[in-house]
Amino acid sequence: MASYREFRRETIARRRRRQTRRGLTLVLAVLVLLGLAWVITWAIETVSGKGEGADADSTLDLGATGLAGSVLAPLPMENPVTETGGGVQFASMGPVQQSDGWTYTGMTYEKICLPACGRVDNTYFSTALFLGDSVTEGLGLYENPVKDVATVRGYRGATPGDVVNRVVMTDYNTGEESVPLDVAAQMNPKSIYLMFGANALAARDDEAVEDSFIAYYGQMIDLLREAAPEADIYVQTMTPVAADYSSTGIYKERIQRVNQKLANMALEKGVYFVDVYSALADENGDLVAEYSSDGLHMVAAGYKAWADCLAGHVAYSADNPYVMGSEYYIAE
Fold it and tell me: What is the pTM of this model?
């Protein structure tokens, strides 16, 4: 019996010694890990120049630290330069903080415009509706490729607000009075071409006027989509004016600014935007002198140039009647 008790005590003692050794081993492992973490932290802070007593604005000299041969790229917070004796220099690598001398600019309206895309013949415009003011009126008045082909409703003095508010207006080419939204609904065109602006801007040279004009323009597009849901809608730039045109509120710089707003609005609404301004402007951005009637409206040559521009900037469709030799023409 005594020998069994001694064996039992010795077994318990051995078990306790093993538990003690395991506990000491765990404690030692924790201490080693903590020590390694401290060493790594110290090394990072020293290399980055943020260790105790380091100069926060100093540049790290990798050659002096002996790290030039092992560092492949600068640390994220630094842009160091190695010695010029043979090591790779990193002066132009790594993140660089931008200066305050920059601004973000969006796309110019020329980049939003529909690019040239084949060329359609005049029959394409037989299912097109042109809505606008007296500038658009000339498309139905002077000889040009869309006259007597397209449905042109140019209402003198009209603004997008008049369309939205369903004002009854007179088309002086035909003498007919109509509500533009009703014309669109009754015709159900395949395409609608819009150009407004001269009358709205002439009211007052004020950015608030421009913002109101753009807001009404967007509402007009929404209502036209309801009236003619099958139609492709084309928003056209305002046309240029002559260099000596002196009407209050309508001048080159303002027209270009409004064209940019129109482009952004068209992009937001998901409709096509066509740059007819460039087709009618000279090298100075003014209306080509030979196209001008009174500085704002045009003669036949101007309207022909306008219509020619539109014929080359139609969204692609296999159903379009492309001119023979045009990019998408398919012989029957």
Answer: 0.69
